[in-house]
Amino acid sequence: MKKIGVLTSGGDAPGMNAAIRAVARAGYHYGVKVYGIERGYQGLLDEQILGIDQRSVSNVLQRGGTMLRSARCLAFKQPEVRAKAVKILKKHGIEGLIVIGGDGSFMGAKLLSELGVPTVGIPGTIDNDLAYTDYTLGFDTACNTILDAINKVRDTMDSHERVNIMEVMGRDCGDLALHAGLAGGAQAIVVPEQPMTPKQVLAKIMEGKASGKRSSIVVLSEGAGKAESLAKEIASMEPALDVRSTVLGHIQRGGAPSMLDRRLGTLFGEHAVKLLTQGIGNRIVGIKDNKIFDVDIVEGLSIKRHFDKEMYDIANMMAK
Ligand code: F6P
Predict the structure, then answer these.
(1) How far apart are CA 41 and CA 8, in angstroms?
(2) Which residues, listed in sequence order, are joined to residue 286 by a DSSP beta bridge?
(3) pLDDT tens digits, one per residue of 12-70
(4) Predicted TM-score of the model (pTM)
């Protein structure tokens, strides 16, 4: 393979630039020309394709977002649209593609592989919702952003003896809430995998209060409810509590990637290029037990997510 493309698709994630940089630099090392495709699959259809070399990716390692920009492209679900994409890749002499994104983007990658364009996926999403890999790119940075917010909110909650319901992202996956909640000392962690009624959340808060806690932080995953309505419900059940809510929103998707995400992006990028140079496609790369590996796309995506109940129980044990 002499020419390969790289694109970022779906929600951006800190560390995507580290992966793009690694693709460009590994491409240089292995002697393949790398093309950056802007705005994901949509940019491919619009032929927003630019040559990138080892210098084009200087000074991006430490930056959040994605230098190639990203988009969600629903049209890519149509076979005729994908056929057009293959034609465009052929026209530019691009023989293999690296797709950095989540499960939706990987489906596109699989379908392109079936059409004869070897495609390799790199898991880039803050949600950590891909079961085949221990971590996705951006998850660690997003957890650290949430932790920073928890620390700040806790300062003021403690001064005023308040409760704060902090809503974090994660779509249908509670990992951001679970990991940041455990590390941030949440009094309760509410995730879609382990539903709690407002009454149960209140009971946890009151348990802390009874043991002398002045304030409480509840970390709520967006897939398990809305912070404002949970805060209202709790306040209506226990009017003596001063309950506030915070929605962290897109702040969780930005910022300089952590060391872990820069390392992951770099190792994923190099591995993906190596696969393509060997003519291997239809794979997604991941990390398991601290080792970079790759797996067939369909096989990887069919692995069921396992909620870490043990970690959840320990987080609860700590909230005493
Ligand atoms: O998948 C990443 C994610 O940030 C989710 O956590 C969140 O639900 C969603 O994307 C938000 O998407 P958008 O940026 O399109 O509003």
Answers:
(1) 8
(2) 293
(3) 999 999 999 999 999 999 999 999 999 999 999 999 999 999 999 999 999 999 999 99
(4) 0.98
Going along the chain, which residue ranges are E strands? 3-8, 33-37, 49-52, 96-101, 119-123, 163-168, 188-190, 216-221, 243-247, 283-288, 291-296
Indicate the pLDDT class of residue 287, thresholds 50, 70 and 90: very high
| Closest C-alpha to ligand 1, atom 1 | 11
Q: With H, G, I as helix, E, B as strand and everything else as coil, classify residue 220.
A: strand
- 171 CA distance to ligand 1 centroid (A)? 7
CA–chain centroid gap for 55, Å, is 27
| Residues sharing a CB contact under 8 Å with residue 65, sequence separation 6 or more, in sequence order | 12, 14, 16, 17, 254
∠ Cα 252 258 259 (to 5°): 165
Instruction: List Cβ neighbours of 199 (8 Å cut-off, separation of 6 or more).
Output: 237
Distance CA 271, CA 189 (A): 36
How many angstroms separate the CA atoms of 143 and 208, rounded? 24
Residue found under tokens 């996705």: 136
- Give the integer Cα–Cα distance in Å for 25 and 12: 21
C-alpha–C-alpha distance, residues 288 and 296, integer Å: 15
Residues at CB less than 6 angstroms from ligand 1: 11, 102, 125-127, 169-171, 222, 253
Token pair, residue 62, equals 């430490």
